[in-house]
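Two proteins were folded this term; both appear here.
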Amino acid sequence: MRDFDLQVKAVGDDGTFSGYGSVFGVVDSYKEIVAPGAFAESLKELAAKGRPVPVLWMHRADQPIGIWGKLEEDEKGLIGSGTLLISDVSQAREAHALMKARAVTGLSIGYWVRESSYDEKTGIRTLTKLELVEVSLVTFPANDEARVEAVKFKLAHGQLPSLPEFESYLREVGFSKSQRVAIANHGLAYLLRSESEGAATQSEGLKSLSDTLAGFSLPKIGA
């Protein structure tokens, strides 16, 4: 997931709102840039399936609060208009009240990387093709604590997250404190130790983490 320092543009009494979920050409804190056209393929696929992109509350897959009626790219970035289901979902009504009070103004996208390029000289990664999963309402769109984002991108790039990052991820997707400690300390900790010992023991670490996770019901992220 990627958070941007952006704000919801307008909020209607009927639960409608609009805003940018992503902007092009901006180097973020992870030294990554979203390129123009990055969402084009994914948006076309979603349109063909007739499946609306959900509005989630704080990237919680178990808390959809609305749908995006329109999402498209313009010269600035990914812009959209959505509707909160304020008549049927209590969290949507709470979100609507917070948005109107300007207590919650952030938008943040959830996605998978399909294609990217890396500049060795600048250390900047350009995201050229993304699969859009959801666009969330968030309180702090430019939060320095990367939360789920750091874990997803480290895993996607073949790197392991730190224990605090992984525990933060588990907290965000709904695991209890005791579950977070068990999963992180009995799975990831072993894998982190094995990483410094070479590929032979790393496979044992992966199996340990997999076996630990198998004992829990993992929440689903995205669609």
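Next, the second protein.
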Amino acid sequence: MKNIDSKVNIVPLIAKADTISKYDLQKFKCKIMTELVSNGIQIYQFPTDDEPTAQANSSMNGQLPFAVVGSMDEVKVGKRMVRGRQYPWGVLQVENENHCDFIKLRDMLLCINMEDLKEQTHIQHYEWYRCCKLKKMGFTDVGPDNKPLSFQEIYEAKRQKFYDQCQREEEELKQKFMQRVKEKETTFKESEKELQKKFDHLKRVQQEETMKLEEERRQLEEEIIDFYKMKAVSETLQTQVCTNIKKEKDRKK
């Protein structure tokens, strides 16, 4: 609570107040308020400067913290259904002011002091947060010559500082980009040389294979020519033999 009392409106509550007797509840409330004060915790106080609500708010400030009981169940009491809790000794009604402070809490927050809560959040908590944030970011109220600075001057100084930082970072990124481009170009050139070497090697291998195939083709053609020559000589010899055999037969006849 110490960490958040400067950031939000704190309204102290006692939850599950039906677990405490009515006599002990009042003592418990006093103990809680004493501990809050002794620890310096700032809680939201209902405003008493507005005439129509001053009396009600003053009375409610004296009843903090509110003792509330919640329930999602509806219980039958007499001839009507009410939201509450069923116990062996009876029914605790959430919306009965004699049983708990739920109605008081709802009226104080939603009906009577809603606008004041919003104003407190904006004027006190948000402005305090904004002030701390500006100080943390380095905004000062005086310049080098100890003259007060307007917010516009502070803004312009911060804007220029941020612009200069962006320019430096942009220049660094450009340098890194150019360096990476050069490295990539060098890598691509080396890769291109390797590919060219491989291409030249494959081209030489292809030429050698082509020459080898041409030689084999030439040798095959020569072998075919020799084969046809031998075939022609063989056919000629065969024809001569057949003619001689026929002449020999005719002569014998």
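The chain is about 65% helix and 10% strand. Residues 151-252 form the longest helix (102 residues). These notes refer to the second protein only.
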